[in-house]
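job 3f2a | input accepted
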Amino acid sequence: MRRRTRRSYNSYGTRGSRKIWKILLGILIVIVLIAGWGAWKVFTPYQPDETAAAALAEIADTVKVNEQEHWLSFEPAKRSGSGVILYPGALVKPESYAPLARRLAEKGHHVIIAKMPLNLALISPDLANEVLKAYPEEAFVIGGHSLGGVMAARYAAAHSDQIKGVFFLASYPDNKGNLKDKNLPVISLLGSDDGVIQMKNVQSGRTYLPANTLYFTVEGGNHAQFGSYGAQKGDNPAKISAVEQWNQTVTALQDWMKESVDSASKNP
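job 3f2a | predicted structure (268 res):
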């Protein structure tokens, strides 16, 4: 009787252990699937819309579009003024800024849109180094949209002798991007109906900007329309068209470069 009882007990214990392990394995698989789905949702980038695709594909004698491993280049046939390095916003595909880049290039500016790993400028904030090495004879301003602007400011703060100016599109600097004493021209553009940017961060960021910083408000503009990737979560609807927001942005940037950046380079 004792032997039978012992065998019965062992058999029950083995079956019970296997059942527990199967349950635990099932739970683990569910956790992994949920985590994977969550990561996919979080890190899925905003895609360029049809307007952005058209700006990339458009063939014109005035602007040549080239794609390199680490950036998109919009080269004007006749260059006038400083080149522009643009860091995209977080989780926004670089192609999304093609309409803005093409408009700047049509005004004579060589525009470089950085292609960030995982579409996060935070991962490769020094990518501008490669651009400057590729075009050693050109002068560039640097800036970015949203998180891209924060990272661009950090780069400019650490390489102020290599950059001619800094611009912010719905963005601001943090302590690591302190430009207050860097003697660089700076312009900050913000849409009046931006629903994404935290205004407290914008206000605190101004403590890291020089006194002569230019501030420009795109009336009726929002956060997403600095690019061309559709609506962004948390943003407010814009009261103006994307085309109007791009045109206002290009005019403000061009005037700033002409008056504050290029003139300063000619008269050091």
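job 3f2a | Helices lie at 2-43, 50-57, 98-106, 128-134, 147-158, 199-205, 242-266.
job 3f2a | closed
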